[in-house]
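User: Hello, can you help with two protein structures?

Assistant: Certainly.
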Amino acid sequence: MPHRCRRDRRCRMSVTNTVDAARLNLLLNELRLPAIKVLWAQFAEQSDKEGWPAGRFLATIAEHEIAERGRRRTERHLVEARLPTGKTFDSFDFEAVPMISKAQVMALAAGDSWLGKGANLLLFGPPGGGKSHLAAAIGLALIENGWRVLFTRTTDLVQKLQLARRELNLEAAINRLDRFDLLILDDLAYVTKDQAETSVLFELISARYERRSMLITANQPFGEWNRVFPDPAMTLAAIDRLVHHATIVEMNVESYRRRTALERKRGPGRPPSHATPKTVAD
């Protein structure tokens, strides 16, 4: 008889545990805690075996939930950023661009010193010099540090803003870009000298001034931006807004692409005149 009672108690405990587990899963669904839902049983078993205090058990599963939320958030931000693939700091040849301070770039990649102030970063240099690669690598690092970034060719974004203007929706379209802490405009100089294009670009620059940051890559120095903006007054106003709170980086180096092509043509057995780039940039 005592054995039967013990068996009955075990059965009742098993049923109770099953019901509690099902109830807990429903509660965790309601609270939107998917990581805890997956992991709680595993850590509860470990907690029982090792005699954890209740506080340690709760802190452990809460830490895993927070870590999983951070991972999912980073994944979402990477998808929306539209960064070119393979453009990282590891694949960027800092030795080939000696005027770039790696320490300064890493500080910029943290974001705290400039994104919160709505400051800008401007990268100048000839085609193939690594501007787009560096911009994308900075964008990737910023996303990993919790910031939201959008990478786009300037011409593509300008066309979208022109369409929004035709649909009387330009202000709303520019406001939607506010959700990004950093807007990377690649190849500014390729915008055609057209009043409609450059006016929406100017409105974007003005709207983000001292509020949200921009990273711009350009082949042409400021002195040649009259090729982008048809109106000299608009050119000066755009430059003034961009440089007011800005870090400006000159990347006047030989094209990665040209240098790589010359080294291939030179063939094996002849030492290159420059360090071989780790990847073709821009």
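That covers the first. Now for the second protein you mentioned:
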Amino acid sequence: MSERKSDPDRDDSERAFFGRRKGHKLRQHQAELIDHLLPHLALDIDRDAPADACEIFDPAADDLRLEIGFGGGEHLAAEAQNFTTTGFIGCEPYVNGMAKILAQIEAANIANIRLFAGDAAELLAWLPKASLSRIDLIHPDPWPKRRHWKRRFVQDRTIAAMARVLKPNGEFRFVCDIDDYCAWTLSHLARSPDFKWLAERADDFRQPWPGYTMTRYGRKAAREGRKAAYLRFRRVG
């Protein structure tokens, strides 16, 4: 669910968020990164997950977080550089987005990111129970037409899947500038016994949380007059 508008007519039999896998033609160096750097960082979910998911990294990370649909990778790269002992998994089926994060990893020599170029639901099913401290979903595809709402990432089944892999008191954080999808997310999380919305006042969801890295899509939305909501939910129980 990366920061883009997907083709609503794409065949639903194609996996990975029903989204486009490739857009603009990759530049030569981007293609080289996909061919040569990505294999070293890509998770292979056909293998058994380690009992301790922090051992995905060598040396093992102190903590583990996931960003679903990282788009251009600005937020993911910034978080990884700010929290160097935390391991980050970035999930993005869109090839151009993958090329962008790889370029940032190479340029800044970021060592604490691993990548998955596929369906986040499959990744969540692969990860061990209570292995993540946080999951971020930032400006996902909104799928505004009613007949496409089933394609939104936030569904009862994915909320249950996130609850399984989040540690107690772990967080799911959601950023979106589409009012309908924000309301959809709030209503779905409200009926889950596994999550509590953390907002106590309006600014808790109107303003980014401290340290938030604004993405290019977020800046574009602001220029076009759309205000984003910044929703935080804690895993309870």
